[in-house]
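Minutes, project check-in
Item: structure for the 178-residue chain
Input as provided by the requester:
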Amino acid sequence: MFDPTAFDNMKVIIEGALYDHDMAGDINIIDRNDWVNIAKMSRQFNISFTFPQDSKRTTSATIELQSGVSNLAAELTPEFVTSKLSGAFVKLFFTLHHPNETNYYQVIETIILDIWGHSRTITQQVEWNPLNSQETIKNVVTIDFNRMITEEQMEDLLEMTRYMIITLEKLYEFLRVK
């Protein structure tokens, strides 16, 4: 019988948690991708959501799970590779549309740090067309945990999805009020 990998188990936990919230009407799942890169023997899964009341999609959140060949090898051949590689890497993305004003970036950073703490790498990457006068920009906030998540931390993934919803709610409220 086939044993699912840590990546597969984590993916199921994330999907289950977010689809439960979707079914309850708390969020709307707007995208889902599950890729296998044959050239690099890696996998990537992501799922994105927004709020039902955010009809203009000014905010959305994405959780991404990545696993490489060394992670798979650690599970399939534990006698050759340390089990410390058995797991996956998680990143979170919050996509926001707002005016290109410094105070927005500062408040967004504060909201993220208040919820996720200072031990993660947080970046904001802005996208806009400089030849087109637009009032809003696209800001993708990334939270990188800078470490591998293992199957022993499955409960953390459930908490992570809950904190993602809380974070998106605070960001949505901030941008809605502004």
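Outcome recorded: The helical segments are 6-23, 69-76, 102-116, 154-177.
No further action items on this chain.
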